[in-house]
Structures are given as structure tokens and as C-alpha cells.
């Protein structure tokens, strides 16, 4: 069966927060001048009482407006990813299904997909629908760490704090020929899984109480490794997909990636030999959106007319310190 990505709808919380917000808190930081942490002009933050479930519900509003409540509530499969689960012991899939009025046969929470979770969700949903598990699926992602982890009083003094932004997205898939998913490639690099760590001062396990606030344990050595892995992995999975669908990377109509920083964005489009106008990014408006980066940028490309019916869009990303990467190609058929 052919499975299509029919539509995507997104949500950015609150008003844009300018770079000067973090500049007022900035202190001496050994990583201040590192290319990984050059701040975007703006980003968005979740509100203090806003949950990941709230964000997904608000992201789904566009789908409901365009396609009706039944298109969402009647989906057979719900696949979710939340950067910061509202409760640490389980994902948000059950609560999201309830909030959206769904009674799905399948509810799956994906956590290891990280910044590539939307691509991972497309792969899982495509496999389930093509095997007869249902006719429609939702892939819902929520990035909510910027306004929670990175805006803690001690953490926001660090260079890493000014880069992330928050957002959410919901994609609608169906057994259909309208906008076929041409191919998906996902790869796990388990040898790198332990390289992303949570640090605090004084050190403790992330769940233990203590005076120091948790943040990502970056060092110059780790950053060098992450840059090398990301620069290699995203082109690798992209070329693998392009080879199987018979499209040379320079002939792609549009590239949509996650957006950790400007350096990765430049290196990826150069590796695929694409001009800037065929690589969508909202880094200066939204910062690093983690898993929400791909669907938010895809939604912007559709709304602005940069992706037209019949064109091929390639979505690609890597996750964490390089323990996962994925790419997916779709021949876009329009929202109609």
C-alpha cells in the first residue's frame, strides 16, 4: 500500500523572544564563542503552565480547521515524541489521544528519535499503515525544553541556553496516493548513545534533589565529535534515500532539516549541492526546534508556496550526540 503525508499543522507558543533576553544574563562561559552556540535572533518559549499535551492540541488545530474533527479524532494510529515529558515515567501519547478525542488502535511514544523523531514517526506510521494496522495516522511532536530547562536562572547564563526554541507539530498520514512517502532511511548509532549527558554543579543524577540546575554536559571535545557526526550522518541518510528513489540530491526541489545551528545548515546544503533557496530554515525566527524543526519548516514551506504539488521534498535530521539519524522523501501532492 502507498502511504502519504497528507498535511502538517504547527504551533509556536507565545511571542518571539529576542536575543537580547539572554544577552542580559550572559556570564563568562568557556563555550561562549563556539560556533554551536551562536544565538538566533528570536525563539519562542512555552508558558509556565503549558504542557506538551496543550502544545499538541494547539498544533492540531490547523488540521481540524482544514479537514474536520473526524480526520484527527478518527485516526487509527498515534505516534508521539515529547522532548520533556510532562510526567517522567511515561510519554504523553495517552493524554494526547484523549485531548484530541481519539480512540486509536495504536499509541506509540518515541523517545530515541530526538531531533529526527518526525522522520522516525513517518517510518513507523508508514510501516503500520502499509501492514494493515489502520487507514490513517497522526505523528505528533512537542519541543518544550527551551522555556523549561534552558530558562532556569542558572542555566540561562550559559551559552547553550540562547539557542533552543519551543514548538509543536502534528502530521497526518493515510493510505493514499496523494502525497506518497517515497522512501525512509533511519539509522541507529548505538555507540554514541552515551555521549549526551545531563550535568549539574555539584554533580548528581538527574532525578536527585540538589542546588545545581541540570543542563546539557557540553565540552569542546564533545562538540567536535557532534559536529563531525552530524556533518556526516545527515548527508549519508539523505544520499541513501535519494539513491533509492532515483533523484540526485542537487535535483531535489526542497530540503528540510533540523536546525541545531547555522553551521550545520550551511554544511548540509553544501554536501547535497543545493542553493540556500531550496533549503528551508527558520533558525533566526525560532532557534533550534529539536524534533519540531522539520515539521515547522515544512509547514512554512507549504504555506509560502516554496513546496508545490508534484515536487519532491527531502526531510533529514540527526539526534542527540549522533546516536540516530533519518531521512524521508515525499512527493508532495498539495493540501487539497
TrEMBL record:
Positions of the Beta-ketoacyl-[acyl-carrier-protein] synthase III N-terminal domain: 112-190
Highest taxon in the source lineage: Bacteria
Molecular function terms, GO-annotated: 3-oxoacyl-[acyl-carrier-protein] synthase activity
Beta-ketoacyl-[acyl-carrier-protein] synthase III C-terminal domain location: 242-332
Keyword terms: Acyltransferase, Transferase
InterPro entries: ACP_syn_III_C, ACP_syn_III_N, Thiolase-like
One GO term (biological process): secondary metabolite biosynthetic process
UniProt-recorded name of the protein: 3-oxoacyl-ACP synthase
Organism: Mycobacterium lehmannii
Lineage: Bacteria, Bacillati, Actinomycetota, Actinomycetes, Mycobacteriales
